[in-house]
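Tutorial sheet, problem 5. The two components below are modelled jointly, 582 residues in total.
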Amino acid sequence: MRTLDFQSPTLRRGAFQLAVGAIAPRPGRITVLIGPNGGGKTTALRLAAGLLTPDTGSVLIDGEPVHALSALQRAARIALVTQRPDVGAPFSVREVAALGRIARPADAQRVERALQRVGLAALADRPYHSLSGGQQQRVAVARALAQHEPGGVLLLDEAFAAVDPPEAAAIVRAVREEAAAGATVLAATHDMAVASAIADDVWCIVAGQTRAFGSASDLLTAGALPALLGVAIAEANGANGRIAVADYRAILPTQTP
Amino acid sequence: MIGLAMVSAATLIVVAARLLVVRTLDGTFAVGWPSAVISQFRMDAVLAAAAAGAALGVSGAIMQTLLRNPLASPFVLGVTSGAGAGVALASLAAAWAGVAAPVGAALGVPALIGAVTTLGVVLFLARRGGSIDPVTLILSGVIVGAIASALSTVAESLLPPERRGLLAGWLFGRIPDVPDPGALAACAVAACGLTALAATWGSRLDAAALSDDEARSVGVPLAPMRTAMFLGCGIATAASVALCGPIAFIGLLAPHCARALVGPRNRILVVGSAVAGAGLLIGADALRQWIDIGGGRLPLGAVTAVAGGIAFLVLLRKTTGAWPR
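Model answer (structure tokens):
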């Protein structure tokens, strides 16, 4: 199993500074990154992927600075789903998913299995650009699953954002299977219901700094979340326990007829 | 493979037509093997057109992939015009210095400087927030290309009259009947070398079509690959300009023709684009030979500009800068 270790990395970009302190997402568990827009979730994920070099501190994978690894070495250990997937060529869905294997030995069965896991096997021969935004997001997840080796690191940046609930459930199932097989999963989301469905641990980043890091049972609650995020949170009874949702009626002003 | 065979067969048919179809003095056409002297002239011209067309075709395919833009090509991005401006300015400098104008393979140096400078300026202008904006890219290419063409015209007008005619004819774009051996060899090596390199890196080029973060995360060393590929495109374009002058739209059309037949995977697409570019330019030169609307044969650059310009507008209408749904 791979280990991912944030050793107090800092990064300044203009007026924004990220300084999240020492955080170690645990292998075999899903750590959900929450926080307001622009707070630093994506920057933290890009640091973890080795796409940014910290000004000070470091992010280590298996004890090595991730930004110092070659692109091939990183691809063998870390798979990433970005917030805005993009494909600038007229590829089919299958061809896009297979791009996850370009740095790894070719494995057509693995690509097909990845497409099945996100519910896109029937659309594999369709042109990628003919799909909806949510379907394209699922292709990006399939590409990452085709790349991801058991026990590796899986980074998801709002991978559920444009996806309908039934398809999101398929992604949740796939991510949970990878975590059960030993993957270190770090997933950013603004959807508290999705966070409730997948989180083992929660990492809250606000204004570039870690506001809280702990187990989901402690932090994803109507008692803890309002203090962390500054929004009203309600709890509902789900099939497998309580889930947290943003209470927009408590946020919006009351309308009078 | 079937698609590549179709592209190759179409190119062979065009080559055969260029070699075998003879226009008689009364304006009619006949089919037959010409005399040894004439067939050598035609073969040299075919080789020059094939080398230049292949260089432009493969450069266009690589640019469209790396820039994620179906409208990118050496001409649309101003690189062809930039190479032409480099040669025109070198000719002017030579005239002012009182030395002979560069000819043959020696044209490659100013052409390369002009091509790489133009490409660098266009990519710099198109950068928005760390990524290349597709609309700004095309606009920058068109404007920088227009400035480069204007520089060529200025240089031409400042040349002494005895030197002006040679440069003016070259700036129109033409397939030389007797190509300079050095320029022909340089262009052929550049086209074959760039095609081989791009085919070897085919999977990486495929992944470069993803967003920058995604491409790097699947294992593509994006920055060094882009630098090497763009430099290769600059060298191949400059070599084609040194051989045949600035030729429009072959680099845009050849990848689209090849993509329709061999698909979008770069390992085979770059080979198909090189073959299609060769076929298109040989075909355009043959067409130019056969069209007679009075007043002599048409300049090659005019034929490719008219045909390619219409095709560009069709593509623009169809794609609006993005890949079609």
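Marking note: Chain B is about 75% helix and 5% strand. Full credit if you identified this.
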